[in-house]
Amino acid sequence: MLSILGGLGFLILWKLVVVVGGYPPFILPPPEVVASRLVTAWTSGQIGPHAWATLVEVALGFGAGAALGLVAGYGLGRSSIVARVVSPYLVAAQATPILALAPVLALWFGPGLLSKVVIAALIVFFPVAVSAMVGIRSVDLGLLELGRSLRATRRQILLTLEIPAALPSIFGGLRIGITLAVVGAIVGEWAGAERGLGVLVNIARGSLFDIPLMFATLVTIAAFGVVLYVVVVLVERRLVRAR
Predict the structure, then answer these.
(1) 21 domain-assigned
(2) Tell me, what DSSP letter sits at residue 207?
(3) What angle do CA 105, 111, 113 make, to 5 degrees?
(4) pTM for this one?
(5) Is residue 75 one of the residues assigned to a domain?
(6) I need a labelling partner for 159 at 20 to 30 A (CA). Which of 27, 84, 108, 110 fits?
């Protein structure tokens, strides 16, 4: 309920800014104009193909980045040598703006799907790796010693002790990662693409100068981020509660 009231408050404030400032629709369209343009863009099939392309990029990029991040995080959490050797390079890579890397990656991997997946995976990788490392390191050492004393295999310790204990921390990284995957896909589309919501934003603000369409596309991007975040939260609640 509070989130709904907050959204209504934001729309009212938006409308007041437009009315008081006297902004024309090509500068700041009112919310009802954006809502109307959003409906017409979806019903006419203008947004649909672009939205699907972005969703595929986000899903593949998030899956690849999260998988690699979990593996790297486990290695960093369990081996101090790996942490000392790899951590500086991970931090350096994270400190490099993805916006600066996107054109280079688009040049290397081409303007197709692969470059967007790589960009999204790279931006997802770091938070997932760090959260997995923190989660693995937080496992009670006494429980690990107990498992070893009972002659539990490495696989049994991983599945019954380490993963359950690390799940809350891991899902913290996945929550961040899923929203960053959307950002990475959009940045990749800006660097060069034929389809995608990022491409549609450029089209709307460029040749067509259709600002209501640009805002409608931004609303769609934001909705994608919220829905995907909620999906991760629901999966987290199910798995963590099951454990």
Answers:
(1) no
(2) T
(3) 90
(4) 0.86
(5) yes
(6) 84
- Could you tell me the CA-to-CA distances from 204 to 58, 161, 198, 214 in Å, in that order? 22, 51, 10, 5
Asked, for residue 228, whether it belongs to a domain, the answer is yes
Tally the domains of the chain.
Answer: 1
Does any domain span residue 122? yes
Contact 109, 118 (CB under 8 A): yes
Render 101-133 in DSSP notation, one character per residue. HHHHHHHHH-SSHHHHHHHHHHHHHHHHHHHHH
The whole-number pLDDT of residue 231 equals: 94
The CATH number of whichever domain residue 33 belongs to comes to 1.10.3720.10
Banded pLDDT at 143 (limits 50, 70, 90) = low
Over the stretch 37-91, which tens digit does the pLDDT of each residue have? 999 989 888 898 999 999 999 999 999 999 999 998 888 887 777 778 777 777 7
For the CA atoms of the chain, what is the radius of gyration? 22
Question: How many whole angstroms separate alpha carbon 157 and alpha carbon 166?
Answer: 12
Count of other CB atoms within 10 angstroms of residue 190:
17
Cα angle value 79/83/85 (rounded, 5°): 115
User: Residue written as tokens 């486990």?
Assistant: 74
pLDDT, one tens digit per residue, over 103-127 is 888 888 887 888 899 999 999 998 9
